[in-house]
Amino acid sequence: MSNKLLEVKNLKKTFGGLKAVDIENLSFNKNELTSVIGPNGAGKTTFFDLVSRFQQQDIGEIYFKDKKITKSQPYKVSRLGLIRTFQLTKVFDRMTVLENLMFSGSSIKNDSFFQSIISTSSSKKYEKGLKDKAFEIMKDLNIEKMSESYARELSGGQKKLLELGRSLMKNPELLMLDEPLAGVNPKLAEDLLEKIKNLSDQGITILMVEHNIEAVMKISERVVVLAEGQVIAEGSPQDVRNNNKVIEAYLGTADE
Fold it and tell me: Is the model's pTM score more than 0.85?
């Protein structure tokens, strides 16, 4: 039985003649913490957008859990268990932290108009389950004391934690983190790294784009390096660190 969770084949995306993504074949295994790195403009976020279906590729195929999702809508991919975060956090500023989490964890079948006006025993039980789960996640992320704070009152780092919590409410099988440490102070960044590693240890497959190379090397099991939309190296952190193509991509050649 295949251990592949996500696979892309002949995936290409161009913008005005510029190749943003040009990947022949790339796969990610279950229960693996993989980081995607590369210099600015390498195509990392575009790759995330294509896989999570927030952008349409020019050509290519995408498979998640052996299911072809090439033409799927983002919400359908999310329901399959592929959940992503964004460089710029997307939280509901006018909702409390608790409300943000409960809203993210609610399902369509329990959000009908009928359910909203009639409080049944099953709906009460469902809501209590959501609330308990939200508090469990807040406790794990150390934001429990902010449960009644509005999201707009949080710092940038705290919003990153909230967005991570919202993702966890959806029970991800594959969690795609787009620059989770961006704009976060060093102490909170260390805490976030530890929490990401713990999630991986709990069996959640993690795919992370991050510019903090030292952080990447510290927790990743595998590193994929993009440059000009193409994969130029992949392997263990140590292998990638010593790869001449990677060094050139970041530092340029002697001629340059």
Answer: yes
